[in-house]
Structures are given as C-alpha cells and as structure tokens.
Design goal:
By secondary structure, the protein is mainly beta. The chain has two domains: 24-127, Immunoglobulin-like (Sandwich), CATH 2.60.40.10; 133-361, 7 Propeller (Methylamine Dehydrogenase, Chain H), CATH 2.130.10. The protein has no helices and 30 strands. The strands form seven sheets. It has an eight-stranded mixed β-sheet, with no helix packed on it. A five-stranded mixed β-sheet has the order 4-10-9-6-7, with no helix packed on it.
Length: 362
C-alpha cells in the first residue's frame, strides 16, 4: 500500500532566489540576423539575493548603475510590487515591521527618456523575531479510534465528528461516533485517489487529494458528493476560519482559498525564529491561530495566519504508548477543536486511540 514517507520527494519546493531576467532588446544586423541584448544589470551592495533578515531588521540597499545607464533620469525601486520613495544617493532603507514573513521581492529599474536602461531583480527572506512558546500536554480522556483509518483530516462541526482518511483504494470521508469510535456514515473516494485534509463551510464539506490535484465537495449531512474542484500542486491539510479555506501542500506555505470560487486568494509562508517550517500537514483553526501537524514529528505548530509567524509549538511526544504500536501504526496526524466546549482532540494515522488533551505551557 502506497504511503507518504519521509523519503518522498516533495513537489512545489520554491527556490528562494529569483534569477535576474533582464528585459530583452533587439536589433537587426547588416546580414538580417536579429541580435538579442539583455538589459544591463544594476550592481547591488550590502544585500545579496536570498539573504535572510529578521522581522524588524531594516534592509539597507545601496546600488550602482552600469555605464550603459549613465545619464538616467529616474530610478524606480519597488518592494513587493509597491513603489518606494525616490532613492537618495543610490541607496534605500526598507522597514520590515508588520510584513508577512517569507520571500520579499525587490526590483530596481533605471530609465532614460522613458526607456528601461538597467535593472536588478532580487529577493530576500524575512523570518520571525519571536522565539516560539513551548507547550506540552495533559491527557484528559481517551476514546477508541479505528485502526483502519489513515487519518488525514479531523474536525468537529457542532457536535459531529468528521474524519478524512487516506491510502488509495480505502480513502473516504466519514462521520464518526466519538464515544465508540464507530463509523456512522462514510463516502468512499475513487479507488485511484489518496484522500487528504477536510474542512466544512456552511453545509458543504471539502476534501483534498494528495497528488491528483482534485478536490471533492459533499453535502455535510448526507456525505453525498455534489461537486469537484482542481488546484495546482499537492493537497495535504485543510481547515477554515469560516471565511476562507487554509490549504497546506507539504511545504512551509499555506494557501488561502475562497470557498465559493475555490480560487487561491493569497499565501502565507510559515517561519519561526530559525527559518522556514516545512512539511505542514493536517490543519485546524483554533482561536485565531492555525494549528498544523508537522509531518513525521510529534509537534504541532501554532501559526499566526496574518503573518505566517510560529507563535508556539505543542510537543505531543509519547502520547500514544509504545505498547499500542503495531506494524501499521503511523505518525501523529489529526487535530479537532470542539468550539462550544473549547476541547482539543488529537490522533494519528492508524492509531487505536483518540485523545482529548489540555495544552499547558512548558
């Protein structure tokens, strides 16, 4: 049976560096051949492509125009597609407070008589200045869990517990009885589909697939499939704040998706104070934060959805006793929040138990 494993190659890893891609100019030579020339590059000092900064740290850039740009009558600098005030003496300082974390795009362009005569494209990376708060757990109550459920998504809608499962040939979306662990109702996915995360908005339940770029929409009451949608890349976790869907794809990015049009609105890139936090898997929205299982670990990241900053980590090490492990027991995955009671539940892939926990500061 095919399974996600730590040795898998994740698609959609995005290079931090942006290759300079100068505007092309051309002219026809005497023999009629077209000669292509790239726009000359502006020399940048102090900042290198892909350099990592900490939020709050200023980005001080100084630059020098090439000889081809002598006599340029204007230099335009944009930061994340917003024009900055005119540079002073070929230098500019960019403040980073209040920005989303991750890649920041800088473009410098020089013009003469309205024509582009030199340019430079580069990106820098912004990481968090906050050291994440560390949390541990107390087990409040233990419930049975279906060991055949390769858990990919877990959530409460009111008092109803929903679960999305994976593995080709046995993936489904189901309603589960919390107390008994029994499946109340289920809808199988096509046999070729590896099911992934789930979320509910209104009367619709949404489910991702891993590598098939297909999503499924159900009536949440009957689990009757009422639609499909597509997306680029992989599907891992899915959650909602009631307004947008949060979609993880195994990288450090979380996509914000309109549940009506199912188009991507924007993305956040998740960073802590040391760097990018990769392999974000199952998601849950809890009290203004996105909680994300980090694949192949016992950690849950608590993420600020407005910036991508990791506010804290919940360490669930050893929550499933070793004597409960079998050959099919896999990693921690599955976070469900019961909004009315404030209770948090967790489980794992093919685990025999589902835990109600209390999160406590370490």
């Amino acid at each position: 049976m095919m399974r996600k494993a730590s040795s898998m190659i994740y698609a959609a890893i995005i290079s931090l560096a942006l290759v300079s891609c100068g505007e092309k100019t051309s002219k026809t030579t005497d023999n009629g051949a077209e000669e292509i020339k790239a726009t000359p590059l502006i020399e940048v000092a102090n900042v290198r492509d892909g350099q990592v900064f900490t939020e709050g740290e200023s980005i001080a850039i100084s630059f020098k125009l090439p000889t081809e740009a002598n006599g340029a009558d204007s230099t335009v600098i944009t930061f994340n597609d917003k024009k900055l005030p005119k540079a002073n003496n070929a230098s500019v300082t960019i403040a980073t407070d209040g920005l989303k974390l991750g890649r920041q795009r800088i473009v410098i362009e020089a013009y003469k008589n309205g024509s582009l005569v030199a340019e430079k494209y580069l990106s820098v990376v912004l990481k968090s200045k906050l050291k994440p708060t560390l949390y541990t757990y107390k087990v409040v109550k233990i419930y049975p869990h279906d060991t055949r459920a390769y858990t990919q998504g877990l959530l409460f809608d009111g008092n109803t517990l929903y679960e999305g499962t994976g593995q080709r040939g046995i993936s489904d979306i189901r309603i589960t009885d919390l107390v008994t662990g029994q499946v109340v109702k289920s809808a199988p996915l096509p046999s070729e589909i590896f099911g992934e995360g789930i979320a509910i908005v209104g009367d619709k339940a949404y489910q991702l697939s891993w590598q098939d770029q297909r999503g499924f929409i159900y009536n949440k009451h009957t689990l009757e499939k009422i639609g499909e949608f597509t997306y680029a890349g992989e599907g891992w976790g899915l959650a909602t704040d009631g307004k947008v869907l949060f979609h993880s794809d195994g990288t450090n990015a979380i996509r914000l998706v309109d549940p009506s049009s199912l188009t991507e609105l924007s993305r956040i890139e998740v960073y802590d104070n040391t760097g990018a936090v990769e392999y974000l898997n199952e998601l849950e929205y809890i009290n203004g934060e996105i909680w994300a299982n980090i694949y192949q670990t016992d950690k849950i990241a608590r993420i600020d959805p407005s910036t991508g900053r990791v506010n804290g980590y919940v360490d669930l090490s050893n929550i499933l006793p070793k004597n409960d492990y079998t050959e099919t027991t896999d990693v921690l995955n599955g976070i469900a929040y019961h909004k009315a009671s404030g209770k948090i539940y967790v489980t794992g892939k093919n685990w025999p138990k589902l835990f109600e926990i209390k999160v406590v500061k370490r």
